[in-house]
Amino acid sequence: CCFFFFFFFFFFFFFFFFFYFFFFFFVFFFFFFFFSFFFFFYSFFFFVFFFFIFFFFFFFFFFVFFFF
Fold it and tell me: How far apart are the first and last CA of the chain?
């Protein structure tokens, strides 16, 4: 059980890290080229995305610690 949880947590952490890295690279690339056009849109999008990341990580850690 503990090994399964550890493996699941490790896999999820790596998957989320790679997804976050690629998404950040993609957003930075678009933000560099269309800075003047999508400034407000990307600011709102960054706010929503970081709030979602924070909420998801909080919920996931609470779930893991609750089951541990």
Answer: 10
From CA 50, how far away is CA 27, in angstroms rounded? 13
pLDDT digits 0-9 by tens, 6-54: 777 777 777 777 777 777 777 777 766 666 666 666 677 777 777 787 7
Contact indicator for 30, 45 with CB cutoff of 8 Å: no
Q: How far is residue 59's CA from residue 6's CA, in Å, rounded to a whole number?
A: 17
Q: Check the CA dihedral 34-35-39-45 and report its sign.
A: positive
Residues 6+ apart with CB under 8 A from 10: none
Q: How far apart are CA 15 and CA 67, in angstroms?
A: 21
So where are the chain's domains? Answer: 2-67
> Which stretch of DSSP H or E encloses residue 30?
helix 2-33
